[in-house]
Amino acid sequence: MKIILTADVSNLGESGDIVEVKDGYARNYLLPKGLAIVGTKGAQKQIETIRRVQENRRVRNLEHAHELKQQLQNLGGVTLSAKVSAQGKLFGSITPGDVVAAVRKAGGPNLDKRSVSLRGHIKSLGKHVVDVQLHPDVSANVAVQVTKEQ
């Protein structure tokens, strides 16, 4: 079935793309969730409108991403406290949600936890570098200091 995406769908395409998918996937998932519309002649005319809006939004988002990157760089380091065993090991590990909460607590911007990429599991005290993907073209590094909870 030929459909037109109205939103970005991972592993499929961006909004405005015309893609061919299996009938069941389109009928049971994409169409009911509003992620796509059936690829008719009239709908193809709407593609141009969708692409224009998307291009304007992308430029606006790129500028916003650069502002967020600057805020994260001005923030310096972020301190995060965690429970530690008697041997000095963390109970569990630090999650992207923990990093987002620590950045917000330190006065930084409100980030999406899906944009935070940990370089492996953080299971020890000390300084760790975390990647934040703000935009497909803009990423930032945040230094996270993991300390013992008092």
UniProtKB/TrEMBL annotation:
Residues 13-40 form the Ribosomal protein L9 domain. InterPro entries: Ribosomal_bL9 (IPR000244), Ribosomal_bL9/RNase_H1_N (IPR009027), Ribosomal_bL9_bac/chp (IPR020594), Ribosomal_bL9_C (IPR020069), Ribosomal_bL9_C_sf (IPR036791), Ribosomal_bL9_N (IPR020070), Ribosomal_bL9_N_sf (IPR036935). SUPFAM superfamilies: L9 N-domain-like (SSF55658), Ribosomal protein L9 C-domain (SSF55653). Transmembrane segments: none annotated. One of its GO terms (cellular component) is ribosome. Keywords: Ribonucleoprotein, Ribosomal protein, RNA-binding, rRNA-binding. It comes from the Bacteria. Binds to the 23S rRNA. Belongs to the bacterial ribosomal protein bL9 family. This is Large ribosomal subunit protein bL9.
